[in-house]
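Sequence dictates fold. Below is an illustrative record:

_____
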Amino acid sequence: MDTPDLRQAVITWLGQAQRLSFSPHAVTDAELAARPGFEPVLNAVVHAAPVSEHRDLYGKVDGDWLPRRSAILGQSGLGDATRLLVRQAQVSPEEVADDFVAFCTAPAPCVEDWLLLRADVPEATRIPLGRYTLQTFTPDELRQLGSMPALGNQRPGTSHLDLLTGAPFLHSVDTGRTSTRALHWGGHRGPRAEAEHWRALLPLMLWSGEPLRVQAVFDVERGRRFGLRSDDIPTTLTTSLDRHGMEEDFEVRESGSYHVAPVQLPAFKAFCTQVTARIDAVVAGTPSGRRLPTRRARRLERAARHLLRAYQRTYSDYSVWQQEADELLLDYVIALEALMISPADEEHQKISENIRTRASALFLTPGQRARVEEAVQQAYSARSKYVHGDKLTEHPPAQQLEQLRELRLIARQVILRWLALTPTDLGDLTDLLDTAAAGTSRERLIDEPLRTFFAATPPDEIPPDVLGS
């Protein structure tokens, strides 16, 4: 590859562009590409990155493969660099040329799925979660993920990266997709884009009683494109004093109430690692073809998806849209039922009673078991009213929110304890719960394993029934 010639062609072009007399705000990439001085750059691209090795840089015109303007000037950032130099901005032509050469000659990167979380976690966090990684970044590190990092904050459309200092991202390579360097449009993922990533999100949701939400799901092609739009970053205004002691407002990213303190990071990592391993063990049963492991894995996925769906519509500990409160209740009931139902329940006899007693059997003190039974009974009663078109409750909104919050915390604990107790063999957990609910071998089957689990890998807070048992 003739990369020195390509680098020099770009430097020469940028030197010529600095002497051009046009409005840098008005000139388009198409107009730049039409200028005679740009043709040597295109010729150098053809030699340094031939179509046989970099088809994604090219498009067919009248039967011939030619470099695409949208890639060479637009996606690479060379067009933005040219306009900045015309405006006499502080840009290094040599660094721009290096970035452009890297863009053209690098192999096509894998497409990665990235999720921006509404949470606050320590700086420099990096936690593997199966095929995912939970990680925080500096703005400069995020700029390096896109093309033309030499432009820094000066490139249009990148100023929002400063809002993402320390923001937590879940990211993973999407093995089913390859880069095309074609234009990408937002809104193609559908309304539930986060649902396919439940296996990485579930350990994080189970760590804390505070609701965790996904703020954006987008694509990253390292060295080319960081696909998060500024509109996808919820912000709020905060006030500080400037150097003259005057108050000024500025935007910050909303991080919500989900918080991991620096001192908690080792415990947080250990918990997420352990829960991820248990999720993977359950899901590993799906390809086995055996009926119980397959159904067990599907039920866990359904419970997790409904919990995630409810969390996405929970804006704070006591805040949901009143119009959606009924649907959230249904999500929590379905999550409970997915895990607490048994193959023996297939004739739909006493399902609500079985779900109630099994869920409560997962708790270690009589008082907490009674509280869970009552909450699940009320939830099932509300679901029946919903199905029959009746009004769910006469309670004031504040009391409804308190009941919904309690159901959310119960559903979270049921999923966590189900994971802690689910046997790796072909036994069914519901059999153990029925035995425990009948008062038989409870200490050995339920209490002791749960105390061991919470002692070894505690979540953000040890549940009161574990502490008091």
